[in-house]
Amino acid sequence: MAVLVDEPYKVHPTLEHRFFPYAQNGGSVVAVAGEDFAVVGCDTRLSEGYSILSRDVSKIRKMTKSGLLGCVGFHGDVLTLTKSLDARLKQYKHTHGKDMSCEAMAQMLSATLYYRRFFPYWVYNMVAGVDNNGKGCVFSYDPVGSYERESYRACGSASAIIQPLLDNQLGYKNQSNVDPTPLSRDRVRNMVRDIFAAASERDIYTGDEVEISIIDAKGVETQRFPLRSD
Question: Is the pTM of this model over 0.85?
Answer without folding.
Answer: yes
